[in-house]
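Researcher: I'm preparing a figure for a lab meeting and need a structural model of a single chain. I don't have an experimental structure, so a prediction will have to do for now. The sequence is pasted below. Please return the structure as tokens so I can convert it later.
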Amino acid sequence: MKAEIFMHLDRLAYLKEELQDKVTLLGEPDSSGQQKISIEITSDTDLIFIFHAGVRYGLDKMQAVFIK
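Model: Understood. Here is the structure written out token by token.
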């Protein structure tokens, strides 16, 4: 199954790290930094990897707030 979504570029790095070649960029980022992407979901574990990418992004952002 393919899912097409818009994602901010700083979050995209985390997703690409988890899913490597299953993430395809579609076009160019818009003026607000949103990039349209396609994700090839081939198993249930891909959904877990998407979740983990989001958790890692959130942890890194919160850690940056508290550790300066």
